[in-house]
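=== RUN LOG ===
request id: a7f3
mode: sequence -> structure
chains: 1
length: 422
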Amino acid sequence: MAKQSTLRFGAQTDEVTSLLRVVNLVRTHEATTRPEIGRVTGLGRGVVTQRVDQAIEMGFLADGEFGPSSGGRAPRTLRFRSDRGRIVICALGALHIHVGVTLLDGDVLDAEHRPWDISRGPAETLDTAMEMIDQLLARTPDVPVWGVAVGVPGPVDFGSGRPVAPPIMPGWNGFDVRRKFEQRYGAPVWVDNDVNLLALNERARRRDEHADLIYCKVGTGIGAGLLSQGRLHRGANGAAGDIGHVRVRDADVPCRCGKTGCLEAVAGGWALVRDAEKAIADGATGYLARWSDDGEPLRPEAISLAAEDGDAVAIALVQRSARVVGESIAALVNMFNPATIVVGGAVPSAGEIFLAEVRQRVYELSLPLATRDLTIAQSVNDAREPLRGGAEMVREQLFDVTFPRWFAAGRPTIEGIFTDAA
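=== RESULT ===
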């Protein structure tokens, strides 16, 4: 979002807006020397020098190495002081807690993962997550936290940071997740649906600030993150992309949300576990049956692994999931017309067994114009994807959205960001 954000700062001759623009140009590597800044902004050499000196004095920028010469004296490069603060990410899933700490440029410094059932409730879950985070922060105790991202597997009111009736998160409805982290770390906190973080990670990974992309996660639950011209579409109340509770034709299976026939109740990870356990009880043999005999609880990941290993029951379950998911994605393709669809989560980790079915249904059910340039791909399935996506969200909020509110203080504060915005 670099180019859009820098252009958003109004008149280039204004001292404040030009200073913010200079910092963001260097931060995003759009311009890394004083001559480059002058060429991009149109500011005179003296003004550029003055703004750069101000940014260095405030601690945002520092001089780097000398750059290549174009015939005269080699210009000294500038670098953004990404080491001045830390970004904390807490990515909660239905069955895990994943936390990490990054530099201000999004590079992950440290991370920890723990199996966890989110139905244990917000108090115990967040206390555990913050204990994990504290252990990471203790390794660099002298560096302040500048921002916190929290991802949860359910709809979120982004403005308040509260989950809104999340079907697989009993006890979380309306819980003030933001306040809990603000009190602990004294830094601005943003809470979002976990799949939105994954969509932002894809935008950053592809270096496509104008991406038209859908990220569809099929894990215990099912959701989609929607990027239009690089911007997340969250909807009026944070429910955009919650395709897990779209009705599946002719389905009457009860869903955990209280309705019947939801996509999640037919194709989600917990539905596959339910159906696998029933098949084993009815006498199915193979990888899944042996897994069950070993006393290990079935998880969506185990079903995907079994499908890759040729287990007939697992293959049938994964392919059925992919077919109905593909039908729902096809509806999004016709309505949203993305350039890219990325499929991720525990169930699609079965690879082409899942992806081939999705592709077939999408191309079969979508309009030719909508699929003419469409790419459907699997996520890279990197455990740090939600951490990088969370850092991307915080960086966007700090430097693209709220920078003018807090830059004079030298670092973001809760009051400077949220109070001024109210």
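=== NOTES ===
The first helix runs from residue 2 to 7.
Residues 1-13 have pLDDT under 50 and may be disordered.
=== END ===
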